[in-house]
Amino acid sequence: MSREYETVIGLEVHVELATKTKIFCGCKTDFGGAPNTHTCPICTGMPGALPILNKKVVEYAMAVGIATNCEITKYSKFDRKNYFYPDNPQNYQISQLYLPICRNGKVEIEVGGVKKEIGIHEIHMEEDAGKLVHDEWEDVSIVDYNRSGVPLIEIVSEPDMRSADEVIAYLEKLRQTIQYLGASDCKLNEGSMRADVNISVRKIGQKEFGTRTEMKNLNSFKAISHAIEGETERQIELLEMNREVIQETRRWDDNKESSKSMRSKEDAKDYRYFPDPDLPPICIPDEWIQKVKDNQPELREEKLERYKKDYDISEYDASLITESKHLADLFEETTAICNKPKRVVNFILGELLRLLKEKEMDDSDISFSPENFAKLIELVDSGVVNSTVSKQVFGEIFENNVDPEVYIKENNLMVVNDDGELEKVIEEVISANPKSVEDYKAGKKKAIGFLVGQTMKAMQGKANPGKVNQILTEKLQ
Amino acid sequence: MSAHKITDEVIEYVGILAKLDLNDEQKEKAKKDMEEMLEYVDKLNELDTSDIEPMTHIFPIENVFREDEVTNSDGKEATLLNAPEKKDDGFKVPKTIEG
Hints:
heterodimer, A: alpha+beta, Arc Repressor Mutant, subunit A, nine-stranded mixed sheet, B: mainly alpha, 3 strands, 37% helix
């Protein structure tokens, strides 16, 4: 039935900026500090405390705006958004309503080979709220203000997306761009990137938008796409029963895979926005915009071009590895040491991606050193370890950042280059497996694979499979 | 009789937004106060401001910034002195609905 309808989606994406300090005070922004240690009278809203704007916040916001083709607002200011909630100690959030720093941008996404532009309505700067923890034993909540005043940008898209796939592609694009800029680490699971999704449905061909709902508490790409599918279904069912969709905020429950109404949405007028008298306006002359432009780091497209020129790797591999700034950095740093780009790429796109997926980790969580990685590449290249053992050693580097040289020595994992020992083992394998030998001699050439496998097993993986194959072939003549 | 009538519904709604529980007497008083405030705003509206640029700040200053440098150390103790009730180094508050 859903074929008659289309889903219209717009996103509000909050991104915590990678500044060392908060937006209006000199408190740290590190994630995970002991409760209330990163606080002062300003970020806890004490009477008389005066906020002073962190210049780096303006520059990061401009950098993201420039990278997403926005116009930079030359005369920008802050407003107070008033609401009462314990995570908000001032009883207002300092945000930008009337003159946001960036407007009218766009980014290009690609889904199933089709390119599409997603409009960006605006990007504004604001402060994050504190964190509420619900107590397990008592019927109370506990507030930690470490996050209060951490700088955010909110990127508001136009309602240009039509499917969960487009939403994910848009988010991936934003994340990639912002990570390349170094403006944020964009971790959904730690909340440094958060998306609120506005969803409505309408009959295909209908011009007006349907009534939208806003979905909150989406902490992963998977949750986002399930929520979009679930909410689309829910709204279509209501319309099919001739009932109305109510404009409201809904909270997604990832375990139950369903959402429930949080509260009816407060109108903009309920927030009683007004200019913040504590913060003078921001005037951005052309020279400042130019300076930020000149300082923009290499973005993905430029990096890709450079890789094609500088490294002997395929275009396809180059495009995969530049999808993530973290992988690209690891590739460049490792290759700078060992100068074996092909081997480095193969390890990253093979073993590394496999391990990240298996352990459900983000590539920003990679913590081993390029030095140890490069050392392993050298050891493989010079034949000290074979490819089977190298994967095992790589797993150790990945987990514990071990020095591969030391690890290989300690665990006696070097390839055995003593042909005498190898021949002895091969003869044992041959005499223990008469059936395979017979098959091989009868013309079933594949049978040799089994014998190679048995030999490698007996050698605990420390032989060169090519060499095993060669000796076996000779002996079976 | 005021030109602006604050209805029971409006005062009820403002009370909800402000998280205030008003009794009938307080409501009547608040209604009167708000009506007077709106009248005063009407008075301001008598001025012709069509040629005047909206003011964004009372002083003619702009671009007051600080550098991104950590200047504050552990502020937990001082901050928690302001907590009417605490638990686990946090402010203890009535249970909030998640969100």
